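Before the break, one more example. Copy the sequence into your notebook; we will annotate it together after we see the structure.
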Amino acid sequence: MSDKLGLYVHIPFCIRKCLYCDFVSVSANKDYIDKYFKSLYEEIKCFKVNKSCSVDTIYIGGGTPSSVDEKYIKELFEIIYLKFDVDDDAEITIEMNPGTVSMEKLKVYKECKINRISIGAQSMCDEELRKIGRIHTVKDLYECVRMARSVGFDNINIDLMSALPGQSLDDYKDNLYKIIELRPKHISSYSLIIEEGTPFYEMYEGKNRDEISEQYRLADEDEERAMYKLTREVLAGNGYERYEISNYCMKGFASRHNSRYWQGMEYVGFGAAAASYYEGRRFKNTLDIDKYISSNPIPKDEDYILTKEDKMEEYMFLGMRMIKGVSASLFRETFGLDIMDVYKEVIERNVARGLIEYKNDCIYLTQEGIDVSNLVFSEFLL
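Here is what the structure looks like once it is written out:
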């Protein structure tokens, strides 16, 4: 078991919720935000660390962490540094929306030892941003990147979405090259997914779905795949290596925190809806922000101990999200079983289909396997 721990902190506040978003987030006044952070600080202070370990990754996500006053972030890190032994070289990330960033906030983030920022660009076209309900403009993004670099932030991730309403392959290609021109160290590229409970779900799956205009038309499966392929080829040609299904980076700049999830390493989440994997348990705080603020102890929406079978499943379907795949020898070392004794039929079947490869101790998805990754992963459930 590793002596390193990751921390995740959920800040569920936004200026306005995007039309596609199903994350736990709300727009709130100062009094409500004050109450939330009071509960958040108390949760962190009361967490019981059951073993000697240090923290090597911290991720502040949301919501939009940059939408709240910087004083909350400063107070948050004061508490984290008092509570935990944080490595000097820890990767510390904060998410931000370009429409909520100021020089004052960035300077405070730097003082808090944050060394990685993740910017939700999503598109480099103002009309596309309007269609998906983003509050920022392309100009805001350029200014955000400029300010961040002027303060000393070098490790920058930019999120980009494909298959947006009315978006053509050429539109997406233009977005992709404009992001590359900014030379972020990391790019996360995701296809739009219509999630239940969002305004987009009502638009595209509701009773009036047949009346959607051409300008809001969604890409079909072939167009989505073409955008997916374009992303891989263009980024590879411009110095970005793909290390996970949807994530690309310059050499040495893979997200250490997100890699922790995919590699089955331990992390603890604080805040409403925050999930944890600690000492063989998976637990998740209530999604209800009001309950999170008012309850003591904080209600859990999930809380269970993983069986050996659960851990083997997760080792496979999380680890195989990484382009390098999973190690058969590490599987044996971890579980005391040969991987072929557990998954022989699944592995041989998918090798025959051309969906996975098993070479030099590693089992990994082929390009064809990545295209149907969820189907492949489902076969590793025991």
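Residues 273 and 287 are 4 Å apart (CA to CA). The domain at 309-382 is CATH 1.10.10.920 (Arc Repressor Mutant, subunit A). Try to locate both features in your own notes.
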